[in-house]
Amino acid sequence: MSPLDLLDVDSLLTDEERDIRALCRRVADDRVRPHVAGWYQDGAAPVRELAREFGKLGLLGMHLTGYGCAGASAVSYGLACMELEAADSGVRSLVSVQGSLAMYAIWRFGSAEQKQRWLPGMAAGELIGCFGLTEPDHGSDPATMSTRARRDGSGWVLTGGKMWITNAPLADVAVIWARAEEGVVGFAVPTDTPGFAAREITNKMSLRASSTGEIVLDDVRLPDEARLPAAAGLKAPLSCLTEARFGIIWGALGAARDCLATALEYAGSREQFGRPIAGFQLTQAKLADMTLELQKGFLLALHLGRLRDSTGSLRPEQVSVGKLNNVREAIKIARTCRTILGGNGISGEYPIMRHAANLESVLTYEGTSEIHQLVIGQKLTGLSAFD
After folding, report:
1. Are 64 and 99 in contact (CB under 8 A)?
2. pLDDT surpasses 90 at 366
3. Which pTM value belongs to this model?
4. Does domain 235-381 fall into CATH 3.40.50.150?
5. Pick from 64, 121, 62: which is nearest to 92 by CA?
6. What homologous superfamily is domain 3-124 in, according to CATH?
7. What is the spatial distance between Cα 172 and Cα 189, in angstroms, rounded to a whole number?
8. With the CA atoms of 145, 169, 353 and 77 taken in that order, what torsion angle do they form, in degrees rounded to the nearest 10?
9. What are the residue ranges spanned by the domains of the chain?
């Protein structure tokens, strides 16, 4: 049986949600799974081609409204992330960064002109976006970012650099955050602007089917119309991260489910000491414990999705609970499934080691486990441990 069949969690979903999940599973099975091992080995994926295919299906910015976006529910978006990450975390990252970071920032904080200029093409997958917040020396503490924006007549000049930026080498527009005299400000920067450069980060051991880059901003001159007018202060980019973390809560479950399904199938056919290893107590204990955590993670994700659909938003600490738990448990599941496959667990013929390596990145990007623990701790105690 499927690991998520144990508690009949499908009964908690609507027909529309199940249909969206089935659509995403089909596209992952048809377009990603047959090729992703090769993409991972080569360290490259056809990002633009995938973006156009996902755009045709309405998967880019699917939880947003207007401008060609599908206006889907939070739960539907979460299920899409789960199915895409069951194929590969890097593929889900493409969709998350495009929709929940770059598109959401423009949709939430941009001007009417910016929204019309960028969002329809991004929703269709014809334009690629990236989100420039993390810097080489400033990750978990973005308030200390070094990138600067200074006024120059009626426009702006950006200087600095960003690091570990998904989609950056291919992006048509980069949402860039910088410090100015008035605080943190955001810009929608066309990547063909003089002074803007992005290089591919190579030799990655994780998320190899994802395009990741370093951005250099060398006196990038922009008109004031490039500034995101409704973005005021650090809360603006942090709210975008909260938006994207919701997809991670669901996506990590997809990677874990795929690992567990692989381990279940393998244990049923692999024989040692005259019988399938699925019949041994220690193997069954591993499978039972992993299935338990997968079920709990799904119920947590579903609760957060329903809460968001009913209230319109989630508090940061609620998202931290989901990201901390589900990614932490997903990587434990991947590692334990690897032990069930023994030596075959490290083979590229099976997806488990690839998922485990990808989840090492998911564990730390968009908030490390330690940061999410402190967010939760601050809410519980009323005391900040960040300073």
Report:
1. yes
2. no
3. 0.94
4. no
5. 62
6. Acyl-CoA dehydrogenase/oxidase, N-terminal domain (1.10.540.10)
7. 8
8. 80
9. 3-124, 129-226, 235-381
User: 320 in the Ramachandran plot: left (φ > 0), alpha (ψ -120 to 50) or beta?
Assistant: alpha
Catalytic residue among 135, 265, 366, 370: 366
* pLDDT at residue 139 is higher than 80: no
Tokens of 295: 């079920």
User: What pLDDT is stored for residue 280 in this prediction?
Assistant: 95
* CA distances in angstroms from 147 to 136, 186, 187, 320, listed in the order given: 11, 11, 12, 27
**Using one digit for the tens of pLDDT, what is the confidence trace for 228-242?**
999 989 999 999 998
Query: Is 225 annotated in the active site?
Result: no
- Using the predicted structure, report yes or no on whether residue 4 has a pLDDT greater than 90: no
Top-confidence residue, 243 or 263: 263
Rounded to whole angstroms, the Cα distance separating 252 from 331 reads: 8
**Which tokens is 370 given?**
């330690």
CATH architecture of 129-226: Beta Barrel (2.40)
Decide if 52 contacts 124 (C-beta within 8 A).
Answer: yes
Which tens digits make up the pLDDT trace of 166-222?
999 999 999 999 999 989 999 999 999 999 999 999 999 999 999 999 999 999 999
Task: Write the DSSP assignment of 1-45 as a string of letters.
Answer: --GGGTTTGGGGS-HHHHHHHHHHHHHIIIIIHHHHHHHHHHT--
Q: Which residues pair with 162 in a beta bridge?
A: 215
Counted residue by residue, the chain has a size of: 387
| Tally of CA atoms within 13 A in the half-sphere of 124 that contains its CB | 10
Residue 31 contacts residue 50 (beta carbons within 8 Å): yes
Looking at residue 201, the DSSP 8-state letter turns out to be -
For 86, residues 6+ apart whose C-beta sits below 8 A from its C-beta are 25, 28, 254, 255, 257, 258
Q: Please give the sequence-ordered ranges of beta strands (E in DSSP) within the chain, or none if there are none.
A: 65-66, 69-70, 129-132, 148-152, 155-166, 173-180, 183-190, 196-200, 212-223, 271-272, 275-276
CA angle 41, 358, 267 (to 5 degrees): 85
Residues 6 or more apart from 88 whose CB is under 8 A from it? Answer: 32, 36, 39, 40, 209, 354, 355, 358
